[in-house]
Amino acid sequence: MAERSFAREVEDLKLGEGEIFRGEGILAITKALLQSGVGYVGGYQGSPISHLMDVLADAKGVLDDLGVHFESSASEAAAAAMLSASVMYPIRGAVTWKSTAGTNVASDALTNLASGGVMGGSLIILGEDFGEGSSIPQERSHAFAMKSQMWLLDPRPNLTSMVKAVEDGFELSEASNTPVMLQIRIRACHVHGHFVAKDNKRPTFTLKEALENPRRDVNRVVLPPASLFHDKEKLEQRWPKAVEFIRSRGLNEHFGPTDGDVGIILQGGMYNGVMRALQLLGLADVYGNSLLPLYVLNVTYPLVDDEVADFCLGKKAVIMVEEGHPEYLEQSLNTILRRRDIATKVHGKDLLSLGGDYTTALMVDGLRSFLKSHAPRLLGNQPPTPDPKPVLENAKVKALTEVVPPRPAGFCTGCPERPIFAGMKLMEKELGQHHVSGDIGCHIFSVLPPFNIGGNTMGYGLSGAGASAFNVKADKRPIAVMGDGGFWHNGLVSSVGNAVFNKHDGVILIVDNHYSAATGGQDILSSRAQNPTRSTNNTIAEAVKGVGVKWLRQIDRTYDVAKVRDTLKEALTTPEEGPKVIIASSECMLNKQRRVKPQFNQAVKGGKRMVRERFGVDEDVCTGDHACIRLSGCPSLSVKHTDDPLKDDPVAAIDNSCVGCGNCGEVSEAAVLCPSFYRADIIYNPTRLDRIAATLRGLFIGFLQRRRASRQIAFAA
Amino acid sequence: MLQKPSNMAPRLATEKPITVAILAMGGQGGGVLSDWIVDLAEAGGWVAQSTSVPGVAQRTGATIYYIEMLPPKDAKPPVLSLMPTPGDVDVVLAAEFMEAGRAMLRGLVTPERTTLIASSHRSYAVTEKEKPGDGTGDPAVVVEATGVSAKRAIVFDMQSLAEANGSVVSAAMFGALASAEVLPFPRSAFETAIRAGGKGVEASLRAFAAAYDRAREPAGKAPSQQLPAKLLPPLPASDPHPGLNRLLDRIRAGYPQPVQPMLFAGVKRLLDYQDVAYANEYLDKVEAAHRLDAAGGGARRGFAFTAEVAKYLAVAMAYDDVIRVADLKTRASRFERVRKEIGVKSDQIVYTTEYMHPRMEEVAGTMPAALGRWLEDSPRLFGTLDKMINKGRRVRTGTVGWYLMLHMLAGTKRFRRRTLRHAREIEHIDRWLDLAGKVIAADYELAVEVVSCRRLVKGYSDTHARGHSKFDKVIGQVSRLQGRADGASWLNRLRRAALLDEEGKALDGALQTIDSIYGDKAAA
């Protein structure tokens, strides 16, 4: 990994039997993989599982010692296909990605994997990005489990349970010859907790052994008639085996009393929230004691029908706590009860909400109305529940809606993508608004103020394909924007190759910031860093030329706003046919600063002459119209109120977080804004020559300044 | 493992965890603060759990970190929640003032239990700072809401305090948290947590200590008053320079006391901009306006018209031209300010590079009026010259050659009054004041609004042109608003709308509303 070190986290992976692991959920899972004797790990980085990938990428020593192969897959599809190694060989493999985005990409491989089944334990760790703060569409991974007959684990969100789920998952996979998905919600991935570690295990069967002793079995290949047989095998053998394993190993858990008129069935991941809701209703305590029977589904697919029926038998009503929609579990519950003629009333999404986060407050309300209908006695002694309503209804608090601004994520200070969109905005001032097809990645922040550029995104690397219908004669051409991450994930073929083949006339703007920046700055094929374990420096330009792009412009400094504007103008107006590809390249500033800042400070400390650049605004020249901000949005470029009685509006101001990227100056030059910006070059450890020059210049300038000041008439006071 | 459930109803424990929510933006160190709090609790033998959704925080977005902590009991692990419940939060830490507002809007701050620890500094959101006018949210609203929401509030500028100690806001917030004594750990335990973190320990401890002490001081001025007050000193008794003394006399003799400081500010600006004669010219124009004001019943209205003219006429007469920019950029005071603003140490050298983009328009504007007009009327020549001139120039003000050039340009100020630009500006000023003067007899309030509309003219080049066109659009409504009871308030609304966005969409919307009410579009 390029600019961040995970050396400290790697130490956690070395913990042995009985030692206490303290840290994040996703790291606990990483450690659990090694404890389970995994043979290989792959995946595609993304929130919330990036840490798993990043730490393993830095853990070469640990992995080599254990004989574990790790790779950063080109895409989730590549990662899923990697599990193919477990089809014919008893090797445990694990892959990971962000779901459901990644599961969508991977589903072709998953379908084939699930069809033939596996011999070695195959675990798919899904970082579930659902609910508040999510950056992807709100869908459930559950559907993938159902359609392909893969098993889905959803453990209680504490480190011990999640680690156990990894170990159980491998065994379940092997017992039922089926790949197993382990779903971890975003907050659980980032939860800080602890568990008791075990020693890491070497894989019992290695990839090397497999390679040297190849096996084949035509019955595992997805070709008829085998594929039809697979379907039968899924239903008649693998499914029953899985159910038996889950039941006999007690993977689902019961809490609270055995008897009761009512009960709660819940996804494991919902456990802590449900317990807090019950505690607030006076029906549970913080140590896990509950007055209501709970049936916790650490495995949400398949259900163990008999277990479900047993739980419901003798109860007047149960409520299913199932986050996300549609209500697959609730439907199954109804089927199970109906088939057995059990009259227990089923509640769920009728009392909770159809979609969205199941917050504690929402569950308090839902459970309260459930109990009101079926066990009102239980609510007899309920303490007052926390209620923010009175304060939220206060006019003074309501007034906050007027002043509290939205604060979505945006481009970082000094981001090299900012000048690209500034250039595009300036182009629009001349050539008018264009259809802009967006992609996944940091550059999608361009849809927000102040740029307000770009429309829909169809998926990673698909911006070009998203504009493919617009291949008709018109006075304007579409612009597709994609990042280098998206380009290598899918864009080269699906967007660029597709455009070349279909003689598409549009513009494809590829933002090359040297990393997979949005997912944490991982290296990719075209990264400029020398990475000893990966092949980098494979340029995007060569790749697009390779698939037949003829019109290609490379901009090697995106901060040159005028050049970006002019190149775009050229691409939009050139008579040349076929896709017009612009590669706009500058290093991701977040990662650059991680590397450069320590080097700079080191050099200054060592007494070396160094120049730091940053920008400033002359507040008496600035008139406070903020045109510069509308072409920037940089966090370090803000406004400040002045004491000048003749100025109504706040003036622009740049704070010390400025990294001197140059965007402010270039924009004010290209857009002919005001001359209030200046760049300050601060010379650290100036040389003797620097000092002499500065002194002489100072003498000359000082003389002129004093002379003019003496002629200036001003009030004495 | 399958837990063996019992038939006996258990006795429920009454313990509740202490709950802490941190509202921060990316880059503010919310994660570090969260880790410190967890370390603090764990070192104290408590069980602590933290979580967050940090994906968006990486890039300046607002996010929440959430922590629960509780002492262990009979080795039974507690079941802690992964998200805050409105009305159930003990401590809210907000790393910025509007984020404190957000916490209140989400119901996380309630008067029964929440201690709110917030930094009063502002970090403006894009939607606030991109407005052509002042789009910043009013912090007084947050102050008001805090009064009704929080059980207790500790609010001060933790950002500046942290910066002054070479650290970041999270360290100061941790100090304020220790000082608040809402967590059952001694100060030394907090400091141990910082040391265990291992990064920037000394600076963090300094900021921590400063905030610890500051949080114990009685609450100071409400943060709403933190914006700098406008500098309007009273008139000096006299000045050694006879010309300046006469200016003082003119102000003192001609105007009621409340208007005098603004006139003094105007005179000072124009003196700085041009010379004594120009300041007198300014007073001449104000005087004319003041006479109309008095005739229009200004005495009863505190001479609001005169005050408004005093302010906006000074701004208008000190229009921004290349001469002015060169003058401001070459001053010794400016060199000093740059060093101070960017924190240059005495053993460092700094050079500034100005980003200038002169166009033929500006060049023609600085020429004698007749010559400038002739050039403008010769489009081919104008275009050819523009091609030579119109490009970005990086001016290195600290070097001899560039400085001398700017210095000489600033020196051309003595020819300013003969330039084309000056002629145009004065003509515009006269038309504007003339219109206001015509309105005042019939509608005093509307006349005051006409004067205030001058605020719309600002910026350079395209922005300036856009400002002018908005000004024209708004002023164009005066004829049909005149005589209406709500004429002045309409003009005021139009002016505010014009400052909401660059393209003037809000203004156009407001104009359409007027059309729909009054119907007579022709009047515009």
Description:
- The complex is a heterodimer of chains A (717) and B (524).
- With 717 residues, chain A is of the alpha/beta class.
- Helices cover 40% and strands 16% of the residues of chain A.
- Chain A is built from 28 helices and 23 strands.
- In chain A, the strands form 6 sheets. A 7-stranded mixed β-sheet of chain A has the order 3-2-4-5-7-6-12, sandwiched between helices. Chain A has a 5-stranded mixed β-sheet with strand order 9-11-10-13-14, with helices on both faces.
- Chain A starts with 6 loop residues before the first helix and ends in a 6-residue tail after the last helix.
- In chain B, the strands form 2 sheets. In chain B, strands 2-3-1-4-5-6 form a 6-stranded mixed β-sheet, sandwiched between helices. Chain B has a two-stranded antiparallel sheet with strand order 7-8.
- Among the domains of chain B are: 198 residues, Pyruvate-ferredoxin oxidoreductase, PFOR, domain III (Pyruvate-ferredoxin Oxidoreductase, domain 3), CATH 3.40.920; 84 residues.
- The N terminus of chain B is likely disordered.
- Chain B has 524 residues and is of the alpha/beta class.
- Chains A and B meet through helix 10, strand 9, helix 13, helix 16 and helix 17 of A and helix 1, strand 2, strand 3, helix 2 and helix 3 of B.
- Chain B: Keywords: Oxidoreductase.
